[in-house]
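Table 4 source record.
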Amino acid sequence: MATNILIERDVMVTMRDGVRLATDIYRPDDGQRHPVLVNGHVYNNDQFLVVHELIFSPLVAVQRGYAVVVQEVRGRAGSEGTWRPYTQIREDAYDTVEWAAAQPWSNGDVGLYGACALGTMAVQGAVASPPHLKAVFAYETATDYLSGWTYSNGALELGFQMSWIWTALATDTIPRLGLAPAAEQEALRKLAEASRDMNGSASFLPLIDFPPFQNGAAPYWREWLSHPGYDEFWREADAVARAGNVKVPVLHMTSWYDTCLRGHLDFAKALAEHSDPGVRDKHRLILGPWDHSAYYNKRPTCAGQRDFGPDVFTGPELLGSLALGWFDHWLCGEPLKVLPENGVRYYQMGENVWKEARSWPPAHEPVHYYLHSAGRANSRMGDGTLDTQPPQSEPRDSFVYDPLDPVPTCGGRSMVGVPTGVENQAEVEKRQDILVYTTARLAEPLALAGPITVTLHASSSAVDTDFTAKLVDVEPSGYCANIAEGIVRARYRNNREHAEFLEPGRLTEFTIDLWDVAHTFQANHCVRLEISSSNFPRFDRNLNSKVTPALGSAADAQKAVQQVFHDARYPSRLTLPVVKA
């Protein structure tokens, strides 16, 4: 254990193109060589929360025998260069790891770590595969920056992206513009004013011209909104597509109520199939019940309104022990402790227990639950039902989607800016633009673990629209707990690279991906499915026209008549991953 700690601030580390990045170094003051842990991030090294309170404090790691390097990425805080999100981070991660390995206080073994936006360098460093990298730890971060970070199935993650920009990104970009003091203060004032009215700000049209993000305040906003499909812009930073380059063990974690869930699941699958054969069985994935902010907002056992209890405590107490235990093993040769013996540890909500599996998902049987009604499934007071019997002759259900009166976000998977985690859906389910299908009360528990999808046979009067789905656990008390949700933007229903518009009124099959979950519906509970066309402001509103939604004005917005079919020929259904006891 180190007695004295040496801290060097603002060491300028030179990248391959000559740009220098501001770096703080924490290390034992003992003249010895030590393994090095590296974190790169978009924030500021002066922020105590960012550096010391998310996964572990560098001071704790130094006491454990590590040197720690904390770096502000290019174009942020004290670093030189221009920040273009998700570009050049891979090369900078490589250069920083190799720089750290070559220092006189380093023994040449390096690990990368980080959470959320602070995990970008960790993931990109893993696929950059610098020779001296030995292991990676990443928590609730992005792997494919299009899917499950900026967009989800074609829809913009509006609430998160807006809030992230005005709370953390543009506040650093604006002071770098060289504005006169009065102009700088006015630009920052506009950001603060916008942040106080999430719904009002998110309602601005066209979104791409949102005033507080113009004039250089957030150039990335326009760039992201100009690339709604998967193209070279997103391909360049896609770590999932580069998983074959990974040659070191990766421990990564996410949660059932986090936007990052999709990316971690895709990365885990890619690592298992494509990473170096020598490490494929050494990766670990942990899936907890939290929402995104649980690890830093002083509610470390919660997701929205639900407290899962002391067995799920997150934050530095959990993350520090896991991360440092991981690095102790791979960088220092210590036995592997407090980590999954198998490939995956996951939390089974409803039963509220931790379980393990060799891989994700565990063995399960896809079971279809079919939609039924007499044509009046609108709201939870309607006649929609759900069971395992295929439909015969039934009338279709319909509702009107008005983008100027969208369904409000009520909990779910997001990060900041909108309600997240578990919320009671009872009030929002009174709306006539939500179709609600509910089973009878369950006679015995129904355990799920794996992917959830909805196959929807539907038509729209519009050339483009959205369909949303939400899985809900209706408890005996009447509380309606959201479990999982998804969306599909019609123009990207077949391919996320190319838009294909609808023929108005033509029946079309849509697949809505609700991502994965592990949850048990207990006896006397009901399984419920909501179908609608909006979830705002988590997602941007589809204006029901050919114009890209982010580019459309209020004049482009039109109502759409949505029809959902559930009969013998067109059996709309919810597919659940049922795990046998």
